Fold:
Amino acid sequence: MAKMKKLIIGNWKMNPATLSEAKLIFSGIKKSASSLSKIETIICTPSLYLTALVAASKGSKVTIGAQDAFYQSSGPFTGLLSPEMVRSAGADYVIIGHSERRAEGDTDEIINKKILAALHAGLTVIFCVGEKERSHDGHFLEFVKRQIYMGLQGVSKKLLARVFIAYEPVWAIGAEDAILPRDLHQMKIYIHKVIGEFFGPGLPLKVPVIYGGAVHPENAEVILKAGEVDGLLVGRESLDAKRFGMILSIANSLK
Ligand code: PGA
Structure:
């Protein structure tokens, strides 16, 4: 079986300030990705830039995603975007359940509805989970399990083929240091176990588990190698085309 390509995803959040800056960063990333064949590069941009960056991505090795989408297809929902709109803009991916959206009121129930709607619209979902803090009693394990169980209610085994789990401990997002690779590896095994229990026997695939939170060129290799994750979700460093390009090359060079 062919080895799965590492998924390196940039989450630009509410950046950069202008479309011209966005195009500039994107063209740098495109250039870096152009010669790399062992990774999949995905950039999740502010929705306003989707159309332009989808156009700019044509013929390149980079694909485009959104950072959120609502669960209704249309209607009186001022300010929101439907997954169909995101899809029709040409995006293939959407992040759902990022801790910054959870902090703005997305509950597990809302996230579940968004995941189902996005999957039905044909998008691949980058489903974010992660504890706010770690205590010695292991409570965070139950916390993440609940997020996964709630988020994946009603998702069929077939649709699960279009879900990535992004494990992002909230305490590492925007922080200086990422999780210890040993702890990440344990978490990856745990997440696979939780998904296996949730879906029962006969799961045809292994859901990719990627890591996010304070990833940079200096720790990308150890996170991917010792953490044994299937990819990275990169915030701040994805806005610096040069440094993000370094992360892409590191991921591409791993055996
Ligand atoms: P960070 O953000 O890389 O800036 O820590 C990661 C994320 O929020 O996805």
Residues 11, 168, 173-174, 212-215, 233-236 surround 2-phosphoglycolic acid (CB under 6 Å). The mean pLDDT is 96. Strands lie at 6-11, 39-44, 62-66, 93-96, 124-129, 163-167, 209-212, 231-234.
